[in-house]
Write a structure and sequence with these properties.
single chain; about 350 residues; alpha/beta; 5-stranded mixed sheet; binds 5'-O-[(R)-(carboxyoxy)(hydroxy)phosphoryl]adenosine; binds zinc ion
Length: about 350
């Protein structure tokens, strides 16, 4: 156990400055500094504000993580950092910081894919990921179904959203209901007192015709518009908007289609393990629905605890640790931050 390498991971793709430290599959520290409050009044993340906040938070967050893990930077065997995808300026701060640490300590560095890191983090909770697995990644910027044959090299996209990401839909619907930002956790809480069957909102790309072309793709923009029209009609009629019912019914529509397509992906590939990652995987209804339906068809579901679903440094350290364990060649120090890094590129 103690001879497993110590890996420090940095995450700065969006508004969280994350520093995680792992040894093998053991999580030693997960320090996160969020700038979410600075973005709240704009209703979304402002890239330049996020970049500046990363700069300010970077050193204190690294110090906090090292103190929690009881290590110094000299103890670290390898560094990992999110190279992309994400906000260009935000990514640059993490990449520059990680390169500086690697250069100063003479240790290897792994520039990794943010989305693959959302999958890798589950290993810190549930041990080695069975291969192949189906991964569903649902965050503020992405919604995709992936077949994972080897987490460090082979991630094959099966489908993705053709418009809004699932988390984006949560954020937009929360805004139109006047609930605040980020919308996912607020809708999750608001939905508890509402009825999920009060309003029959549409399930995107679910008709027979859609499934012919988009069997594993998602679409949430029509759902968002349907919620907006429904709320407007209530307001025009001078009636009170039943916010909790709208939240619960909207959430049900998102979770229903996500789970349906994820399990269909498992069955189509004869794969019995589904891992769900990304911020939306923190959703309480999604977790219950996935468990319930998967159990009926013999699929095992793995979802990290909510704190590890949203962006953090532990996920990057977890993927870095996997790279080390599998003997992957470290990144060359001049690798760029790539805001649109494709999921097939797990290590740069
Ligand atoms: O993975 P993440 O932290 O950042 C990105 O890479 O995008 O995901 C953030 C997204 C936001 O859209 C947020 O509203 C959503 O995840 N989210 C949730 C919940 N917690 C966070 N969505 C639904 N239910 C939640 N409990
Ligand atoms: Zn993310």
């Amino acid at each position: 156990m103690t001879d497993e390498p110590l890996v420090l991971g940095l995450e700065t793709s969006c508004d969280e400055t994350g520093v995680g430290i792992v040894r093998g599959h053991t999580l030693l520290a997960d320090a996160v500094a969020s700038s979410v409050e600075q973005h709240a009044r704009f209703g979304g993340v402002v890239p330049e504000v996020a970049s500046r906040a990363h700069l300010e938070a970077m050193v204190p967050t690294i110090e906090r993580a090292c103190a929690t893990a009881g290590i110094t930077l000299a103890d670290v065997d390898a560094f990992a950092v999110t190279a992309g995808p994400g906000l260009a300026g935000a990514l640059l701060v993490g990449v520059a910081a990680a390169k500086s640490l690697a250069l100063a300590t003479g240790k290897p560095i792994y520039g990794v894919n943010h989305l693959a890191a959302h999958v890798a983090v589950d290993q810190l909770e549930h041990g080695a990921l069975p291969e192949p697995s189906i991964a569903m990644l649902v965050s503020g910027g992405h919604s995709s179904l992936l077949k994972v044959t080897d987490l460090t090299v082979g991630v094959t996209p099966m489908g993705a959203t053709i418009d809004d990401a699932a988390g984006e839909a949560f954020d937009k619907v929360a805004r139109l209901l006047g609930l605040g930002f980020p919308g996912g956790p607020i809708i999750d809480r608001t939905a508890v007192s509402g009825s999920s069957i009060a309003i029959d909102f549409p399930r995107g790309l679910s008709t027979k015709r859609d499934l012919e072309r988009h069997r594993f793709d998602f679409s949430f923009s029509g759902l968002k518009t349907a919620v907006a029209r429904w709320v407007e009609a209530k307001e025009r009629a001078g009636e009170a908007v039943p916010v909790a019912d709208v939240a619960a019914s909207f959430q049900e529509a998102v979770c229903d289609i996500l789970v349906r397509k994820a399990l269909d992906a498992c069955q189509s590939q004869g794969v019995e393990d589904l891992v769900i990652g990304g911020g939306v995987a923190a959703n309480s209804r999604l977790r219950v629905l996935a468990e319930e339906r998967a159990a009926k068809i013999g699929v095992r579901v793995r979802v990290p605890r909510p704190g590890l679903c949203t962006d953090n440094g532990a996920m990057v350290a977890a993927l870095g640790s996997e790279m080390v364990a599998r003997g992957r060649t470290p990144s060359v120090l001049d690798f760029p931050a790539d805001s649109s890094q494709p999921i097939e590129s797990v290590l740069v």
